[in-house]
Every structure is written in structure tokens, then in C-alpha cells.
Design goal:
Elements: E1 3-15, E2 21-27, E3 31-37, E4 56-62, E5 69-77, H1 80-83, H2 86-102, H3 110-129, H4 136-153, E6 159-163, E7 175-178, E8 183-185, E9 197-199, H5 201-211, H6 225-243, H7 250-257
Parallel strand pairs: 6-8
Antiparallel strand pairs: 1-2, 1-4, 2-3, 4-5, 7-8, 7-9
This protein binds zinc ion (ZN).
Zinc ion binds near residues 185 and 189.
């Protein structure tokens, strides 16, 4: 029987027949794949604990005629801080859903695997460092910044520096967001597209910072909630454009922001 091994991250899981689970997993070797895990809902299943979302796990996959199946697992990284924080879990459910929307299946992509693992590591580290004063806004900014990197890795880099239409550098003034073109439009080109909406120059600065290769998370701390909401809405709108579908976990995550 043909098999392969890979480091993997569980993005999504749902119930299969009887004790089985169907998993959408991002693997280092094959990219995003759907796999079946047989019998994992049985009490005492050795694999069950390893196949939860938000962990890096080493899996053995057995090729099947109809569907490939997970034949064995070994835990690589568990992220205990992250998994014991309900807000962070809500955030990563959202993050994983975004990844599932942005990334297509069955294409190996080491860069994507690194971005996923780094996102978990970054949030784990953030929680470790800020045990008493961790807040969900900071964590969302970290995750959104990685979502922007994920878009870039797929050739869908949003542009926050120049106008989509005239290509001129944006000035420090009220500019506009084009969800359709994943970018920004200057006031002079505003009439070229309907359904643009305005974006403050501060929110644009934050988006540029988040779009950079190295994320200065510290600089984003204590961001004004109004600016934060602008940034969050824009990145979420871009995910909708790319994925062409609603993000179901968006409202679940919002519960933790309105507290
Ligand atoms: Zn323009």
C-alpha cells in the first residue's frame, strides 16, 4: 500500500460515518488535502488528541482508491497557551477558515506551511509574554498580518501604497478601498468605481506595516479601536473577495471584541 509522511496542520474537521472524522489538513508534502481519520471518535483513540486543530503533527497517510486515510500520527508542537485561551481559539478558527478560503487544494507550498506554523508560534509567544495582560485585539492584528502574507504568497498581494487606477503614490489624505481590486484608490479616481469606501490615512499606515515582511507587533499595541475596526473590516473584505464566500466564524470572533 502506498503511503507518505508529512508534517501537517489540521485546518478543519467534521464528523464522518460512525467513529470517523473528515479532516481538511495542510501538509508540507502535498499542500491542502482532505483525509479521513478512521475510528478517532472512539474512546482511547491514540490519534484523536493529535488531530485537533491548532497543532503541528507528523502524519502517515495511506493512499486509498476513494479517499486517503491517516494511518498514524505523532505530535510535533502543541501550543498549550493558545489552546487554553478561548479568545485565541475563536481567532484561530477564523484564521483557519481564511486559509481554507485563500488556498487551493493539492498544491504543495512550503511557504504557506511556514506562514501557518509561524502564525501559531507568534500567538503562542504573545500569550506567553503577556500572560496577565493579553488582549484579543493584538492577537487579531498578528493573525491578519499573516493573512496578508498568505494573500501575497498566492500572488494576491493587496496594495496600500499606490492608487489602483492611476498608479500614483497615495498622499496622506482620505483615500478609498476597492474590495474588488484588493487595493486602494485615490480621491481623483474615486468616480471610476462604485461601492468604494473611505479609509483613514492612519488605517492605511497600519495596513502597510502589517503588509511588510517582518511584523512589528509591538508598534501595533494599543491601537485605537476605531482604526483597528477599519483595518479588520478591510482585511476581512479582501478574504471575502478572494474566497467568494462568507466567513462563518467572523461573527463568532466579534463576540470577544464587544466585551
Ligand atoms: Zn488614482
Amino acid at each position: 500500500m502506498a503511503t507518505y509522511r508529512s508534517e501537517a496542520i489540521v485546518l478543519k474537521r467534521r464528523d464522518g460515518r460512525e467513529y470517523d472524522r473528515l479532516l481538511t489538513i495542510f501538509t508540507k508534502e502535498k499542500g491542502k488535502v482532505d483525509l479521513i481519520a478512521k475510528g478517532v471518535k472512539r474512546i482511547g483513540s491514540k490519534m484523536a488528541g493529535h488531530l485537533e486543530p491548532f497543532g503541528v503533527v507528523d502524519i502517515m497517510v495511506a493512499r486509498g482508491k476513494i479517499q486517503d486515510r491517516i494511518a498514524g500520527t505523532k505530535l510535533v508542537e502543541n501550543f498549550p497557551y493558545l489552546k487554553s485561551n478561548i479568545e485565541s481559539i475563536a481567532l484561530l478558527v477564523y484564521f483557519n477558515e481564511a486559509v481554507d478560503r485563500i488556498i487551493h487544494g493539492n498544491q504543495p507550498d512550503l511557504k504557506v506551511f511556514q506562514i501557518l506554523a509561524e502564525t501559531y508560534y507568534s500567538i503562542e509567544q504573545y500569550l506567553k509574554r503577556n500572560s496577565s495582560n493579553a488582549n484579543i485585539q493584538d492577537q487579531i492584528l498578528i493573525a491578519l498580518s499573516y493573512i496578508l502574507k498568505l494573500c501575497s504568497s498566492q500572488g494576491l498581494a493587496p496594495s496600500f501604497n499606490t492608487c489602483f487606477y492611476c498608479k500614483k503614490n497615495l498622499k496622506e489624505e482620505k483615500n478609498f478601498i476597492s474590495e474588488r481590486h484588493l487595493g486602494t484608490v485615490c480621491p481623483l479616481c474615486r468616480s471610476k468605481e462604485e461601492s468604494l469606501y473611505s479609509v483613514s490615512s492612519t488605517a492605511l499606515k497600519v495596513l502597510r506595516l502589517m503588509n511588510q515582511k517582518t511584523l512589528a507587533t509591538i508598534k501595533l499595541k494599543n491601537l485605537n479601536p476605531r482604526i483597528f475596526n477599519e483595518v479588520r473590516r478591510i482585511v476581512n473584505a479582501f478574504i471575502l473577495t478572494i474566497g467568494e464566500r462568507e466567513m462563518y466564524s467572523y461573527s463568532f470572533l466579534s463576540v470577544f471584541l464587544s466585551k
